[in-house]
Amino acid sequence: MKKIIWCLFVWPSFQLMAQTGKLQQLDSFFLKLEKEKSFNGNVLIARNDTVLYQRSIGWAEETTKQKLDEHTIFELASVSKQFTAMGILLLQQQGKLSLDDSLRKFFPELPYQNITVRHLLHHTSGLPDYIGLFDSHWDSTRIAGNKDMIALLAKHKPAILFVPGEKWEYSNTGYALLGSIIEKASGMSYATFLEKSIFKPLGMVHTSIVNRRYNPKSLPANYAFGYVWDGQRNKYVLPDSLSETASMVYCLDGIVGDGAVNATTGDLFRWSRALDNNKLLNKKTMEDVFTPGVLNNGKAHQYGYGWMVGTFTGIGRVVSHSGGWPGYRTWIEKHLDNGLVIIILTNYEKMPLPVKSTNMILYDLKETKRKEITLDEATLQQYAGEYQLDTDFSITITVSNGKIYEQATGQGRAQIFPEKEDQFFLKIVNAQIKFVRNEKKEIISLVLLQDGNEIEGKKIK
Predict the structure, then answer these.
(1) Catalytic site residues?
(2) Which residues, at least 6 apart from 203, have a Cβ–Cβ distance to it below 8 Å?
(3) Rounded to an integer, what distance in angstroms lies between the CA atom of residue 392 and that of residue 342?
(4) pTM of the full predicted structure?
(5) How far lies 107's CA from each of 90, 100, 177, 255, 366, in Å?
(6) Which domains does the chain have, with CATH numbers?
(7) Which residue, among 212, 214, 210, 123, has the nearest Cα to 169 in the 3D structure?
(8) Is 46 helix (H, G, I), strand (E, B) or coil?
């Protein structure tokens, strides 16, 4: 659910990573995070065929004190979407479907007209979020699969959010449906098709589809268990033991397409190189993967096929994707102009992904110093409310004694500071919050900017 900032491209005059000093800076940075216990995960940075930096910090499993290592397997959450997109494109290349095929060609029981496979790939379908359906219409003691999701959509017929192609809005529903389209078009399970068509051909021997509650046999060895923060117990716990997350990780464990791929940093590096070398798709289609889609009005949005697309000052053209699920935060980022790839996988959800700081070291970028201004309490009260950024993640804004605070799901409260009207920043982490108004000047959403990401959250209360 992040958006990429479009910036003027300015290329720095240095040979990336040719200096051992940058490696030393990077190592010192991650060593500091380790000492502060503010990062638990694996990081891999490479350029073309060469791994430049690799480090494992922390635990794969707390109770046994099993440490992470380069072979540890993480749930990728939404980073899985690029594999789903690749599966669809491979089936198109095989002549088994077209991106202009209607959704109802595969699922005639669904009521949604004029939605194509391309709309699903680009997050422009307008389909409602399936997780809300399960909250309202599902027995949380049962584990659901894709067929259950489709049955709920067919039975309850929730309205589309907008005309297909009219706007861009991140959709887990769309990618779960793509997972089922892969099964319909290939005649195989989602897991089998990806294994035979992507993982095995590329030598991704530590990558698979894992639904460990739905199918315990799918749990691989050397698995990183994900942990969430329990504020009441003041410690990290498995999401299954926290009331806010237990139902979600259990009853949605059988759904694939929008998540469920598990991998190591090394396998993701193999995947990245395969994309660079057109090992799966022809050159033209591979270029389309990293090309932003176009809305009905002719304007480009920020998403290709399973990748966010943008350009950053001082870096150049970047494609990336983040993932988030109770216990996990994941990231892959490719710099198309110099062959760099950054892969960061964490299994302690509260800990931030240090993507921006990593890029600042690699490219000698400088942090912009922010200046605080004063806003009166009446103005601050306009921003109060709850904003939903993802199905299991929201930010609550409160005002007290002339100060304004944010509190994210599962985290403590932190003060935010105005730098201009509708724009605030945090001091405890490198992040900003921008508020968005409608034509009536009412606050309708916020945008969280952190580590090079933009994540929008609608105001729900």
Answers:
(1) 78
(2) 270
(3) 26
(4) 0.83
(5) 20, 15, 9, 17, 51
(6) 6-366 (3.40.710.10), 377-459 (2.40.128.50)
(7) 123
(8) strand
